[in-house]
Write a structure and sequence with these properties.
The protein is mainly beta and 250 residues long. The protein has two domains: 2-92, Beta Barrel (OB fold (Dihydrolipoamide Acetyltransferase, E2P)), CATH 2.40.50; 95-234, Beta Barrel (OB fold (Dihydrolipoamide Acetyltransferase, E2P)). Helix content is 13%, strand content 36%. It contains four helices and 13 strands. It has helices at 2-9, 137-147, 219-223, 226-234, and strands spanning 11-19, 24-29, 32-37, 43-46, 58-59, 70-78, 83-92, 95-105, 110-115, 121-125, 131-134, 195-202, 208-216. The protein has a five-stranded mixed beta barrel with strand order 1-2-3-7-6. Strands 8-9-10-13-12 form a five-stranded mixed barrel. Strand 6 (70-78) and strand 7 form a beta hairpin. The protein is globular and about 50 Å long. The protein starts with a helix and ends in a 16-residue tail after the last helix. The relative contact order is 0.21.
């Protein structure tokens, strides 16, 4: 538990740049950029392709890290100077998808979505390790109201599927902070027409994604508009409670 709390106090964001020769990289967290410096003792791990759990990650190196990767860093953090000396790092290449289900095949564990932004089909492989949850309607309504533009022009056009950025910056939230407290569901609970967001690993064909975390029940957020959905998934860092997302090996 203490180790989990340390990870929660660490850094979670998106890799903005990497300078291997200086053993340094920059991590974007919301509207801030942290300069992270590694040492000879820094431990690097990479998430498994089908899991956001730290215990499933494998040893890696700084050379494997690239801009756009999701990352969590444990170490001495200076929030004023926006600097971190890394003790442990776990990272991976993930994509975020928001869409409406067009078909469900519970036997093969496959979902077909229509992407909310591109309107193109996306094929989702759900595995036994996929963390599937449902957002209660009352909570979804609260999130929709929190993100809904107030008197502005609803922002610029959304960045599209994949969302490695941090959203439009109105008020990002990290879904990972609540996802493991949401009611768990199974693939058979999902129906055609349901709206959901997910984070997962892109396959060789970018239209195919292996799901790591799925959050259904986002219909009120979709109704609030595409920029609201973009803000929501833009602030979603892999991880959460339990052992997910670098919260420490169990």
């Amino acid at each position: 538990r203490r180790e989990q709390e340390e990870w929660r106090k660490g850094l979670a964001g998106i890799v903005a740049s990497v300078t291997p020769e200086q053993r340094a990289f920059v991590v974007t967290v919301g509207d801030k950029k942290y300069n992270v410096t590694a040492t000879d003792k820094t431990e690097y791990r990479r998430y498994a392709a089908d899991s956001g759990n730290y215990s499933d990650s494998h040893p890696s190196t700084l050379a494997d890290m690239k801009p756009g990767d999701q990352i969590r860093v444990l170490g001495a953090k200076d929030d004023i100077g926006l600097a971190v000396t890394a003790d442990r790092v776990v990272f991976g290449t993930f994509t975020r998808v928001a869409g409406v289900i067009s078909s469900v095949n519970a036997e093969t564990g496959e979902l077909k979505l229509t992407d909310l932004f591109s309107k193109k089909p996306v094929f989702i492989q759900v595995t036994p390790k996929s963390n599937t949850r449902r957002l209660p309607e009352a909570m979804a309504n609260q999130i929709a109201q929190r993100f809904k533009p107030r008197g502005d022009s609803a922002g610029a056009a959304p960045a599209g599927r994949g969302g490695n950025g941090a959203g439009s910056g109105r008020q990002n939230t990290d879904l990972s902070q609540i996802v493991d407290r949401l009611p768990a569901i199974t693939l058979t609970d999902l129906k055609t027409g349901n709206a959901l967001v997910l984070t997962g690993t892109p396959q060789a064909d970018a239209s195919h994604v292996t799901a790591i975390t799925i959050v259904a029940g986002i219909e009120p957020i979709v109704t609030a508009g595409a920029p609201v959905v973009q803000d929501l998934i833009g602030g979603w860092n892999l991880g959460g409670g339990g052992e997910g997302g670098g919260e420490g090996a169990q």
